[in-house]
Design goal:
The protein is α+β, with helices and mostly antiparallel strands. The chain is 52% helix and 11% strand. It has helices spanning 2-7, 27-45, 48-75, 81-149, 162-168, 171-174, 176-179, 183-239, 241-246, 251-261, 266-281, 294-300, 304-321, 329-340, 397-400, 418-425, 434-437, 442-447, 465-496, 527-532, 537-541, 596-606, 621-638, and strands at 286-292, 346-353, 359-367, 372-380, 518-524, 550-558, 561-569, 579-585, 589-591, 657-658, 672-674, 679-681. The protein has a five-stranded antiparallel sheet with strand order 5-6-7-8-9, with helices on one face. A four-stranded antiparallel sheet has the order 1-2-3-4. The termini are far apart.
């Protein structure tokens, strides 16, 4: 049976796409076609669930037969061959059943896909119809919106209200019997009334034009009269010049100044007006004048047409002269920088006089493209002053006006918009040009009425008179005080360089009659040298020493002891006191970091400086601080215990009377001088 079953011809499966097969077909092919199509029909008649249950039962039966065949083969008995063949035949039958179920499943799958495809095509057709309908709806909505948004020309005309229309319009135009019930007729009537009113206004406008022409003719006649009057007035003013000079009333000179002031830019004009007003009202020693070329200033305000013609002529000349040689990029940038930093041809000078006839000359300039003001300073003394090497920076233009207000160094432009302008022409900072242009201090901008917001670039900043007036009085007082304090320091430095500490009679009571320690050196030092000193680090870290301050080194000696004092002089001296950092070289190096008494000596001059101000305004503070340093050095050396290992007398015998030599765990010395008792005590 096994050989017969193996020799059975397997049924041939023909897979077609549904089209007719060409060629001759045999009898077997006809049977297969019939069977294939009968299976398609059978799919519709069979229940898939029952087929699934048949599939499960067939699989279970196959598993059982396979297990029995394996068990019979494992026994190895020859009589079991017939049973094995029988079970094989049963298994083949089950396999045929599974193949049939597989074919039915594939047919069902194909039919399901075909049905899904047909349904999808129907959905696509319905969706296309829906889109067409939506497009038609959208088109209709647009047309409706256009109709609703239509505006007639008459809607732009501001018509009178209905109350005024029925009140003022005549009945033949208003027609209330018709227009009150029909809005369209009402609008037409209102438009007719508007036309009638405009005709009346046009006639009135023509009448006003004729009256205007008559008035203009009268004005021309009066102008001719006034123009003929001007030469007569000039001759009268010229004849009155001797009288003006005799009465000290320079009306003609002031008139010329005001005529020139018309050509000043707004910031300089505000400064000129406010400074002149302040000088006339409050400060007779304040002199204001205008310098520069008036013709160049007039040329800046030529009409645009003339300027364009001039530019075209100059461009044509430049094209002819530069055909052979074209300027390089560096030359073009230099020309752009010069144009960017160009000053106005006119400037305002302000001379501030002191009681001792010393004069501070201030010249204010206006940078037209940057919209900022700058100032240059110069000092003229009534008496020739002695030259002092250490006083070289006191009256220099770069440091004289530095920090007039706290933090105003005058190195950067106060206008934030200038940084964007500098980037275009390759300028890093304005500090490279302050020597030539002047310093753009913030107080200078305020005197000109300019106020710039911080960190916000603005290109249009107008001059404000009220801002200039509010800062004028205080700024003039600060300038005069700065000049007097620098001149006082200049005189004091000349004495200090010769080893003499000048002390006025009003301050003699602050010190004992005999001070042995002497000042032997006073010299100016740069900020870099000051920063390298080991005993000045605390001052620098506290932010009390900046590169805008002035720095000096004082050396005080007594015997073998040498006291070095590094001095920081704030530009706002004497309102802000100098700061001293001490280092004593005697039996080693002693500073505030390793000796509490050195720290106490620094406190005597840095903390208790108000005792040393002297008479107002306190210009003797620095010399009094140096004199106190000499005094406390005497106390420090005289109160030191005597070294018994060294033979001979004590190097610094005690000459000052002290109530107690030391006090407290830090063994502080008595540095406070008590007048008039003449003894020293602790604070």
């Amino acid at each position: 049976m096994s050989s017969d079953s193996s020799k059975k011809r397997k049924p041939k499966v023909i897979r077609t796409d549904g089209g007719p097969q060409e060629g001759k077909r045999g009898k077997g092919d006809v049977d297969q076609d019939v069977r294939y199509y009968s299976e398609e029909c059978e799919v519709d008649l069979r229940d898939p669930i029952k087929d699934y249950e048949l599939y499960r039962e067939t699989c279970q039966e196959l598993q059982r037969l396979m297990a029995e065949i394996q068990e019979l083969k494992s026994r190895g008995i020859k009589d079991n061959a017939s049973e094995i063949d029988e079970r094989r035949i049963q298994s083949c039958v089950h396999f045929m059943t599974l193949k049939k179920l597989n074919r039915l499943a594939h047919i069902r799958l194909k039919k399901g896909r075909d049905q899904t495809h047909e349904a999808k095509q129907k959905v696509d057709a319905y969706h296309l119809q829906l889109q067409n309908l939506l497009y038609e709806v959208m088109h209709l909505q647009k047309e409706i919106t256009k109709c609703l948004e239509f505006k007639s020309k008459h809607e732009e005309i501001e018509l009178v209200s209905l109350e005024e229309f029925y009140k003022e319009a005549p009945p033949e135009i208003s027609r209330p019997a018709i227009t009150l019930s029909e809005p369209h007729q009402q609008t037409l009537a209102r438009l007719d009334w508007e036309l009638e009113q405009r005709k009346r206004l046009a006639e009135k406008y023509k009448e006003c034009l004729t009256s205007k022409e008559k008035i203009l003719k009268e004005i021309e006649v009066k102008k001719e009269y006034l123009s003929s009057l001007q030469p007569r007035l000039n001759s009268i003013m010229q004849a009155s010049l001797p009288v003006q000079e005799y009465l000290f009333m320079p009306f003609d000179q002031a008139h010329k100044q005001y005529e020139t002031a018309r050509h000043l830019p707004p910031p300089l004009y505000v400064l000129f007006v406010q400074a002149s007003a302040y000088g006339q009202a409050c400060d007779k020693k304040l002199v204001v004048a205008i310098e520069g070329s008036v013709e160049e200033a007039k040329a800046l305000y030529k009409p645009p047409e003339d300027s364009q013609d001039d530019e075209s002529d100059s461009d044509a000349e430049e094209e002819q002269t530069t055909k052979r040689r074209r300027p390089t990029l560096g030359v073009q940038l230099d020309d752009k920088r010069k144009e960017m930093l160009k000053r106005h041809p006119l400037s305002v000078t302000v001379d501030i006089k002191c009681k001792d006839e010393n004069v501070l000359h201030l010249t204010f300039y206006y940078l037209m493209n940057l919209n900022v003001m700058t100032v240059k300073a110069k000092v003229t003394t009534a008496v020739e002053m002695t030259t002092a090497i250490s006083a070289g920076d006191l009256l220099s233009p770069d440091s004289l006006l530095n920090c007039l207000y706290p933090g105003d160094h005058g190195r950067k432009t106060p206008n934030p918009a200038n940084q964007f302008q500098f980037d275009k022409v390759g300028i890093l900072t304005l500090s490279d040009y302050v020597t030539e242009l002047g310093h753009p201090y913030v107080w200078v901008q305020k005197l000109g009425g300019l106020h710039f917001p911080k960190d916000q670039p603005q290109h249009t900043v107008t001059a404000d008179n009220s801002l200039s007036a509010s800062h004028m009085e205080l700024t003039v007082k600060l300038l005069r005080t700065r000049l007097q304090s620098r001149l006082a320091l200049h005189k004091q430095f000349a004495s200090l360089e010769h080893g003499v500490v000048p002390v006025s009679s009003e301050c003699q009571h602050l010190f004992p009659t005999k001070i042995v320690s002497r000042l032997v050196k006073w010299a100016a030092i740069p900020f870099e040298d000051y920063a390298e000193l080991p005993y000045t680090k605390d001052v620098i870290e506290a932010g009390l020493a900046e590169d805008t301050h002035l720095y000096y080194m004082a050396l005080i000696e007594r015997g073998t002891a040498k006291l070095q004092a590094a001095v920081v002089l704030n530009p706002g001296y004497s309102t802000l006191s100098p700061i001293f950092s001490l280092c004593l070289n005697w039996k080693g190096e002693r500073t505030s970091s390793n000796d509490d008494n050195i720290r106490a000596m620094e406190s005597e001059v840095n903390v208790n400086y108000k005792e040393l101000w002297g008479p107002k305004p306190g210009y003797q503070l620095l010399t009094n601080q140096l004199q106190r340093l000499c005094m406390v050095l005497d106390v420090y050396l005289e109160t030191e215990p005597h070294d018994t290992s060294v033979e001979g007398p004590k190097e610094f015998p005690q000459e000052k009377m002290c109530l107690r030599l030391v006090r407290g765990p830090m063994r502080l010395k008595p540095f406070k001088f008590n007048y008039p008792q003449g003894f020293f005590s602790h604070r």
